[in-house]
Write a structure and sequence with these properties.
The chain is α/β, with parallel strands linked by helices and 306 residues long. Helices cover 30% and strands 24% of the residues. Helix 1 packs parallel to helix 6 and helix 7 crosses helix 8. The longest helix is centred in the middle third of the chain and has 24 residues. The termini are far apart. The relative contact order is 0.10. InterPro entries: Formyl_trans_C (IPR005793), Formyl_transf_N (IPR002376), Formyl_transf_N_sf (IPR036477), Formyl_transferase-like_C_sf (IPR011034), GART_AS (IPR001555), Met-tRNA-FMT_N (IPR041711). Keywords: Protein biosynthesis, Transferase. Belongs to the Fmt family. One of its GO terms (molecular function) is methionyl-tRNA formyltransferase activity.
Amino acid sequence: MTKEKKISIAYFGSPALSVKLLDKLLNGTALLISLIVTQPDKPSGKRLLNTQTPVKEYAVKHCIDVFDKAISPENEELLIEMMAKKKIDLGIVFAYGQFLSIKLLNSLKYGFWNVHPSLLPKYRGPSPLIYPILNGDNKTGITLIQVNENMDQGNIIKQQEFPIGESTTRLDIESQIAPIASKLIQSTLSDLINGLDIATYPQNNDMATFTKSIKKQDGLVELKILDKALKGKDNEAVNINRKYRAFTTWPGIWTKIISNNKELRLKLLDLDLINNKIILKIVQPEGKKPVSFKQWNEAYRIFPLR
């Protein structure tokens, strides 16, 4: 792309995962991103200090203008005016974290494109990285959609799938987002700049599935279920392995044990699935450091010694 043909873009995003795509778009494809729109600073940590979103930190570091006000009707007008002054024609959204009104969506010449990390219409909603692993799917993908007033229901612009293996984790899926999404965005922009029509097609709502927000409690593995998985019973090992891979980093998986008449949490930090059995490798008792499962179980004898 030559400089005079570049389309001015506003990038909407907030968490660290969104930074990866932003960085790829700026450094890998050299798009003209003139404005960053992100969530307001929020109290964080034990001292509740006001903390910028990772996307804002990146924008400040790279001297890109930032709009970080909550989008109330009044602030929405300010944002629309700011984008007009900067002659922004397109918004790109990935993990922004706030609903965009029809008025805002209609304020830009080319509207807004959203990056959704699933093969829409499957896995609409907040947890598309997790559900394909939990459900044992053998593939997932990245979808670029034209944003409309309904969450994750806009027309599909482009889509690319990739496989999910038996050891694929959520982090593995996350690592695919920036390289794939940046290519989808760049190729679509090239078509736009060259005067080609951007063909889109509606999602089949009859095929839609939905995800929910994951909570810390979702990482619980009941002790009796874990015991079955260690013994290779009732296919529980497969389900726990999927949960372990899907909940990598957060919320993780854990069980509850009784020690000295006290209920404690036992984190399951590392495991394998072998011959339909869970092989626990590293655990972390509540309030203590990680330790090998064998060493811990020999001391506490929660499970039968092998």
